[in-house]
Design a protein that fits this description.
Layout: H1 3-12, H2 19-31, E1 35-36, E2 41-45, H3 48-62, E3 67-70, E4 76-79, H4 83-92, H5 112-126, E5 127-129, E6 138-142, H6 145-153, E7 163-167, E8 170-175, H7 178-188, H8 191-208, H9 210-213, H10 218-241, H11 249-260, H12 266-271, H13 279-294
């Protein structure tokens, strides 16, 4: 299974806790589908779980069941065949159906939490992500230039900064920085994918550092990377939630050191603390940091 398929499967299992986020995700899916307008609203996908999510998106907006068919290549093709259904969906989202260019209506993305849901819907419809073992790359293939520009504008002030290009007539909005991709996956609530990306990043850092690689076999590297990934995600979760400042000064010192040096072994972390402690002491502090992160709703 491709990494992109794994991520989409994970996203299709995300439960929208609020009606506003459920609506925002549905908006993202239909807006960035194969087509969106008074003449055609449809999506084409290889994956049954994406098709099911799209059908649920339509029902969320207008409670109408779309038509499902198959292409010669076996792809699922889902469409709203009736003109009145298409107009009802467009009107529900604030469009008249007479637009010459469909732009993102931000009123459909009510709150900050809805941005992640909207981006998740967009990714399910038009996004792909490369396996981080090969390279760092996530992109959204957008049919029209104005749509691509509006999508980029949503990230103003956000930590991840998108880039744009054109490929075979398609407008591509993409991210190549690994930390930006991590932020996008976190925004979409793809937590398993985030962990896999972090583990791969740390593994590459360790593998590429010859001095640290000499006395480490592959199994030990992977074990170290997995533990460090869990620690990093816990620290970042505490930072995002504002709970980081509730840690003790000793825990904050260790957490900051880990953020700045994801590849460091416990012995190196200890040596760089103001007051070096034992390996078990390092492990105990990380355990408390992870427990603090797990308490965050």
């Amino acid at each position: 299974m491709s990494f992109s398929k794994e991520v989409k499967r994970e996203l299709c299992n995300v439960i929208c806790e609020t009606d506003c986020c459920k609506r925002a995700e549905a908006y993202g899916m239909v807006f960035f589908g194969r087509s969106f307008g008074s003449d055609d609203i449809s999506i084409m996908t290889d994956y049954d779980f994406v098709a099911k999510r799209y059908i649920e998106a339509i029902k969320t907006l207008i409670n109408v069941k779309p038509t499902v068919s198959y292409t010669q290549s076996g792809k699922k093709f889902i469409t709203l065949d009736k003109k009145e259904d298409r107009m009802a969906l467009l009107n529900e989202l604030g469009y008249s159906g007479a637009e010459t260019s469909y732009r993102i209506i931000k009123n459909n993305i009510e709150r900050e939490c809805c941005l992640g849901a909207f981006v998740r819907g967009a990714f399910l419809s038009c996004g792909i992500i490369t396996d981080p073992k090969r390279e760092y790359h996530i992109e959204f293939g957008v049919s029209y230039k104005n749509k691509a520009s509006d999508f980029c504008d949503l990230f103003d002030g956000f930590s991840a900064v998108p880039k744009k290009s054109v490929r075979n007539g398609m407008n591509i909005v993409y991210f190549k920085d690994s930390s930006h991709i991590e932020d996008i996956l976190t925004l979409m609530d793809a937590q398993s994918a985030v962990m896999e990306l972090i583990e791969e990043k740390i593994y590459k850092d360790v593998r590429n550092n010859v001095n640290r690689k000499v006395n480490c076999d592959s199994a030990n590297i992977k074990k170290t990377c997995k533990a460090a990934a869990i620690q990093l995600e816990a620290i970042k979760k505490l930072k995002r939630s504002g709970k980081f400042e509730e840690l003790t000064p000793e825990q904050k010192e260790l957490a900051q050191l880990r953020l700045e040096n994801p590849e460091m072994a416990f012995s190196e972390l200890s040596a760089n603390l103001k007051k070096p402690i034992s390996r078990s002491g390092i492990n105990h502090r990380f355990k408390k940091i992870i427990e603090a992160a797990q308490k965050i709703e």
